[in-house]
Amino acid sequence: MNPMYYLTLIGVVLAGGIIAKSTTLIKKESINDFLTFSAAFLFGIVAVHLIPLIGRTQHPYIGVCILLGFLIQILIETLTEGVEHGHQHHGMKHKFWPLVLGLTLHAFLEGLPLEFYHDLETHTQDHTSINALYWGIVIHKFPAAFTLGVLMKGMSLRGIRFYGPLLIFAFATPLGAALPHFLPLDQDFQIITISVVVGFMLHIATTILYEIDKEHHSGGIKKISLLILGMGLAALSAH
After folding, report:
1. From CA 135, how far away is CA 233, in angstroms rounded?
2. How far is CA 96 from the centre of its chain?
3. For the chain, what is the mean pLDDT?
4. Number of alpha helices (DSSP H) and beta strands (DSSP E) in the chain
5. Could you report the per-residue pLDDT of 103-141, keeping only the tens digit for each?
6. I need a labelling partner for 28 at 20 to 30 A (CA). Which of 54, 82, 173, 181 fits?
C-alpha cells in the first residue's frame, strides 16, 4: 500500500481528535449529516465492491464470516458503547481505557485486509474493491476520532493524556494493514478477513442510520439526499 495511504489513515484520526479539542463550533446536526453520508457510502462500498469481490472467490465460509464480523462488532461495542459510529457519552471516566481498547481492536481488525489488494486482484480480476474499502474506512474514521476527542475533552484530558489514546487509535489501522508484511497470510485468511470486515461495516452502517432515524423520527429531504449521495458515490466508484 502506498505510504501516503498510511499517513492519511493516521492524519484523519488526528484531525478529528484535534478539531474536537479545539472548537465548539461544529454542531451535532452537522456531525449527524456527516455520519449519514459516511454510513451510506460505507453501505454502498460493501454492496457494490466487497460482497461481489468475496463472492467471486466462492469460498464456502463467506456467509458465516460475515455473521461472525457482525457479532464481533456487537461484542466490541460492549467496550466502546458505539463511539466508533459517532455515539457520544458522558461520565465514562471509569470506562475510558476499555473504550480505547475496543476502538483500537476494531481499527486494527479493519486494517488487516488493506494490504491484500494485489493477491485478491489477481485472483478475482478486481482492481477497485480494496481501494474502495480503504476510502470507506478513512471516511468513517473521522466521526469516530471526533467523538473520542469530545469525550476526552469532556474529561479534561490534556497533553499526553489526550494525545496518547488518540495516537493509539490513529496507528491501529495502519498496524493492521502492515501485518501481512511480517506474517505469511494465505488467500483463505485474506478472504475470511475481508468477510469479517464486511460484517463489521454492515453493523456500523445500519446502526448509524437506525440511530439517526430514531433520533429525528423522520427521513426528510436532506437525509434522503445524503443517502443518495453516499450510495451514489460508492456505485460510481465501481466504474
Report:
1. 11
2. 20
3. 82
4. 10, 0
5. 999 899 888 888 765 556 555 555 566 677 788 889 888
6. 173
